[in-house]
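Why does residue order matter? Because the sequence determines the fold. Keep that principle in mind as you read this record.
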Amino acid sequence: MTALDRTAAVRQGESIDVNAVVTYLKDKISDIEGPVSLRQFPRGFSNLTYLITIGDRELVLRRPPFGKKAKTAHDMHREYRILSALKPVFPHVPLPLTYCDDPAIMDAPFYVMERLQGVILRKQLPESSAFNADWADRLCRRWVAVLGELHGLDYRECGLGDLGRPEGYMTRQVHGWSHRYRNARTEDVPDFESVMTWLDKNMPNRPARPALIHNDYKFDNVILDPGDPTRIIGVLDWEMATVGDPLMDLGASLGYWVEAGDSDELKLVRTLPTLSPGMWTRRQIVAHYAETTGAAVEDFAWYYCFGLFRLAVIAQQIYYRFYHGQTTDKRFSVLGIAVGILEKAAAQVMATGKY
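Structure:
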């Protein structure tokens, strides 16, 4: 089976004192002995993730980016707390092992969890007959089921009742992401004002049942069982999780979901294999989610439009860094084009009500 999540050498400027970390870990975790190695998971643009191997034990360490203070977006204790609360009731998370905020060990707080090794899907499917249309159909069904399972948890009973403020969540999200876009806008991208105005004026006025939401649930944040790649064994990257509107969670997920019938332009910004044979359409996903959770989805076009806008803001914040010379990573140079494509897609949803 290919597509196992691979590590690479630690990037320049992102090294950690592995000896200090391992000394700390030996006081916290039993039965870890043997040669030590350090590697890094190279993907992702936010928190940094490392693989520490001690003998035959593989541990994953998460820490904030260098040069940034651990604000809410990089709150390691919050992420560790979420995993600790979820593990007994939601089996699709890695086992958290320890949290540390001792500056003598590392310059930033970090936590360590077990490694879940499996298949992570990227833009192109692995070259294997196992990844056929029947597999895609069954995976989509399971992908929706796991999201519905998360949304169905009693977050108060899990001990996460204070994780977010569900009252006014939708308004705060629209205004917050609009503020972020205006702050990050460069002169070569659309102003998105018509989209932001539409989202503000057309918010669904029925209150949604609050739920624990992941806020970045997509194929490259789930781990599939190598023996049965329709089975999700892990959901990663909980840094944006909160208590809020579950349909906004689904809308954010479908902002990434490019399907076979979409425009050639939108296909250019695809990062996941969602248009492969057998993959469901967005409408199929929403219909199945509604059928299995009982959610009312008549106004889902609004949620999808918000998902496209939110994705554009994320891309623009990264592009802003490239535009102003704060990074030289050439991958970021095309993100301004992606922002323009997402603006057109959002305008189309506004005009047609289709998703």
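The mean pLDDT is 93.
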